[in-house]
Structure prediction request, 188 residues.
Amino acid sequence: MDRRKALRNLGILTGGIVLLPSCDFTQEQISLSLNKLKIKASEEALMKELVSSIIPEGDLPGAVSLNVHDFVWVMVDDCMDQKSQSKFLMGLKSFKNHIKKITGNSFESLHQQERENILNGLVNETIDGAEPTPEDLQLFVTITKRFTSFGYMNSEYIMTEVMPYTLVPGTYGPCETIDNSKRINLNA
Prediction:
């Protein structure tokens, strides 16, 4: 047995054992990294549920099918200042607890009609027996609704299949000669 190899391997093994407790495997991994925001998988899943509740699947594809949840994250990252972003994220973090306190259930376990009522109630503060909605939570729901509807209506599918866009001038009509008998006499 080569002593140098054994000592080197023992040193590597000891260094690995010393470093292992300093590694923290309990933190949730970041699933979506934008310019300023770092979004965790649970936050991304909650945004999908919210967007799905705002514009559900039906005859037309819903917001999740058109990836509107990603659009919401990009808009928050690119179009909001840092103060508003931090309020938005605070509202996101308090959303699950607030819903659990109001309904006794998680947001994911509620039916579509209950979800719509809760979201409208959070914006308008009309939930019976509930304390006033925190400002961060109200801002979070309002912005999520606004960006969801904007992203959905401006998605490629909606703009090309549902409401196809035609150019402003329209089609060209050729010049026609007007029959003098059909002209309107303005001097009469």
Observations:
- The chain has a mean pLDDT of 82.
- The radius of gyration is 28 Å.
- The longest helix spans residues 82-103.
- The CA atoms of residues 9 and 15 lie 10 Å apart.
